[in-house]
Amino acid sequence: MAEEGNKLTLRRLEAPIHKFIKVALPTDLERLQKHHNNILKYQQSQQWDRLHQEHINASRTVQQLRANIREMEKLCSRVRPEDAEALEALVKPVRNRASTAAQDFLLMHSKPAPQPTSAAPPASHPPSCPTADHVGGDQLSDRQIQLHLPEIPADQSAAESWETLEEDLKELSGLVTEFSLLVHTQQEKIDSIEDNVNTAAANVEEGTKSLGK
């Protein structure tokens, strides 16, 4: 009961929540998209050192994004259950963007194309492979590029830095899911309260009828 007493209206917390959903998180997501584009470019052109550095930079951005989502989650957990539906409408767009960004990154190495044999020169492959110029806003084209990415050689630092980035992305994806459950749990609480109130009201009405008889 004490915990419920510490809850605040969404109106009281809307300003600080807006700082996250309108400024902090969109900035992190835009930066992450730039890393995504650079990683596609460097891996496709097999610039392993630059790819390694981009993996490191992307990991830092993901960690910053996670930190901001945690802070926003703390704020949202202070919103009273009665405002859960409005809170969900407020945070859902940026939460979905974060989830999509993480999944797009994780798809990058879901089915890497095998590295060309040493006898075949790398120059024979680019004409048949899509380039970043073909990506545009088409998700299918982006997916095709990812499937044609050359595999990172195991002896390159980029292979290790990708594993670190992959773990960071998985944690980000899990955090977004956890945040979604938090908001839904608040909505379920108020739904349960409403059901109990409706049941009690129905019982009172039934009892009144019985007394009248």
TrEMBL record:
List keywords of the entry alphabetically. Acetylation, Autophagy, Coiled coil, Cytoplasm, Cytoplasmic vesicle, Endoplasmic reticulum, ER-Golgi transport, Lysosome, Membrane, Mitochondrion, Phosphoprotein, Transmembrane, Transmembrane helix, Transport
Molecular function (GO) terms for this protein are: SNAP receptor activity; SNARE binding
Q: Name one Pfam family in it.
A: STX17_N
Q: How does it sit in the membrane?
A: Multi-pass membrane protein
Query: Is Transmembrane among this UniProt entry's keywords?
Result: yes
Q: Does the keyword Endoplasmic reticulum apply?
A: yes
Tell me where in this chain the T-SNARE coiled-coil homology domain is found.
152-213
Enumerate the subcellular locations listed in this protein's record, separating them with semicolons.
Autolysosome membrane; Cytoplasm, Cytosol; Cytoplasmic vesicle, COPII-coated vesicle membrane; Cytoplasmic vesicle, Autophagosome membrane
Q: Which CDD domains match?
A: SNARE_syntaxin17
Q: Which InterPro entries match?
A: SNARE (IPR010989), STX17_N (IPR059001), STX17_SNARE (IPR028676), Syntaxin (IPR045242), Syntaxin/epimorphin_CS (IPR006012), T_SNARE_dom (IPR000727)
Stretches of Low complexity bias are at: 111-122
Name its GO BP terms in alphabetical order: autophagy; exocytosis; intracellular protein transport; vesicle docking; vesicle fusion
GO CC list: autolysosome membrane; autophagosome membrane; cytosol; endoplasmic reticulum-Golgi intermediate compartment membrane; ER to Golgi transport vesicle membrane; mitochondrial membrane; plasma membrane; smooth endoplasmic reticulum membrane
Q: Where is this region: Disordered?
A: 111-133
Stored SMART domains: t_SNARE
Q: Which family does it belong to?
A: Belongs to the syntaxin family.
Function summary: SNAREs, soluble N-ethylmaleimide-sensitive factor-attachment protein receptors, are essential proteins for fusion of cellular membranes. SNAREs localized on opposing membranes assemble to form a trans-SNARE complex, an extended, parallel four alpha-helical bundle that drives membrane fusion. STX17 is a SNARE of the autophagosome involved in autophagy through the direct control of autophagosome membrane fusion with the lysosome membrane.
Q: What is this protein called?
A: Syntaxin-17
Please give the organism: Iconisemion striatum
Upper lineage: Eukaryota, Metazoa, Chordata, Craniata, Vertebrata
